[in-house]
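Our preliminary data section would be incomplete without showing what the modeling component actually yields. Below, a chain of 609 amino acids is followed by its predicted structure, encoded as tokens that our downstream tools consume directly.
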Amino acid sequence: MKTIRLTAAQAMVRYLSNQMNEEGQRFLAGCWAMFGHGNVAGMGEALHGAGDDFPTWRGHNEQSMAHAAIAFAKASNRTRAMLVTASIGPGALNMVTAAGVAHVNRLPVLFVPADVFANRAPDPVLQQIENFTDGTVSANDCFRPVSRYFDRILRPEHLLTALPRAMAVLSDPAECGPVTLAFCQDVQAEAFDWPERFFAPRVWARRRPRPDKGELAAAVQALKGAKAPLIIAGGGVHYSQATGALQDFAERHGIPVAETQAGKSALRGDHPLNLGSVGVTGSSAANAVAGAADLVIGIGTRFQDFTTGSRALFSNPDRRILSLNIGAYDGYKHGALALVADARAGLEDLSTALGAHRFTPPDPGLKASWLGAVSAATAAPHGNELPSDAQVIGAVQRSVDETAIIVCAAGGLPGELHKLWQVGQPGTYHAEYGFSCMGYEIAGGVGVKMAHPDRDVVVMMGDGSYMMANSELATSVMLGHKIIVVILDNRGFGCINRLQISTGAASFNNLLDTARHVTPSAIDFAAHAASMGALAEHVGTIGDLEAAMARARAASRSCAIVIDTDPMLSTGAGGAWWDVAIPEVSARPEVTRANEDYRRNQRNQRTTD
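Predicted structure:
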């Protein structure tokens, strides 16, 4: 057996650089790295030696680097991923939040945080967390609950099994999610005689399991027995590359489609069968049909509370749920009739088995009425001193073409965009709303741009998210990955402030001007963005915003556009109830009244299926 002598870190990088997808690309496009004493010698030397065969990018924050990697994987429909490495201790722990993002959203990312010394000779090493009762624990154990696979590399030869296992999880459509390989820092630098065949190129083909015959027959029977079905398109439609199959299935059988946050843009927005967003941030058209549906057909969705209106939206007493999902865990939720299969293969087999069976599509007036509400909400302001989020969305929509990709994550904007953004092409709406992680937006925009360098990438975010994580704007400038960032400054956490007030509470600790402070806030976001190298400007009106968008699209580097908005305005049309528990006891009569309303709404919940 021929061998080659390499350090463990060199072996990891060489192995990963030879793992390919079906399109002939490296499955792992490269590595985001911030170096410290735990990984600069081992991983740093290995990545430097790989050069362009496995490129390394430097970020400014470990969590943000990981967000960029996650967004890249999402924008690539999970056909590609990235590695993210950080040093021991705080560098590693900064990535745990991002691991939660990837886990919730079923997205592949390989975390390689440095770990303590396997030989324990210098214990406790700088930045080491010591567990007083368990000597095997390190800070990296925090990754366990947010990883689909976790391993600790205590010897070089552990990689012979750990790396193939990691790749199997990253590339598997059902098990896909974050993988953590905690890499002991002394082991990174240890040499080993590796079998040469370990580094042979390998293609990880996308598995497309077809439905079980029994489950398929039951699904067909449920469909043929239904009178008013509705499709709920989730993120799995994109990841399966099933947008075409979804359109064919809906058209052939006359079934309307509503979209989750992850599923939005599965079908063109102007398609007559696309009723728009569903659930808490849903359109009036989709939610009306969802309430009457006797068969809810979930495709690649995990039916989270925003989709189901906290289990109160699908209110037909005879309704059933059919869930086509690659993962059995998600397929059986809500007592659903599960069809465990690849979304594209499942839709094809369902359509064949249904034959010419066709339903009567809903009244087209439902969609027309909703689009009228969208137009009214997104039109330029008439009378209000500061624009609403919806009016800013309208200006951005009018300023881009249908190939532009919109990116959002947290606050009020995902809800408004879910309702109001009119999608042209499939795959042009990118929301991280599984974890709804503030600070994802700018780094996410960088990752999307890396996946789609020829498209406009427009990041929409509030001032709160910008303050939480903005440093990768500098990274976008440095790497030449141009993004357009539209910052809506409502002076605080406007979305949560509105939610707070809706529960009967007083506005408290959310808006900058009403939070406890000594010196009033006077943050100049445009100046801050400009200091990181972006072209930046503050605009005063919606008309000014549209002109600034034109300049930004023509610019050669990242741009930031800041506009002041009203923190109290949101779109009233559409929507559904959301379960937010309200105190049973309060000195405020407003809270008592809100609790009474809450109890009434709870009666509509289905706690069992």
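The chain is about 35% helix and 15% strand. The CA atoms of residues 482 and 556 lie 7 Å apart. Preliminary results of this kind motivate Aim 1 of the renewal.
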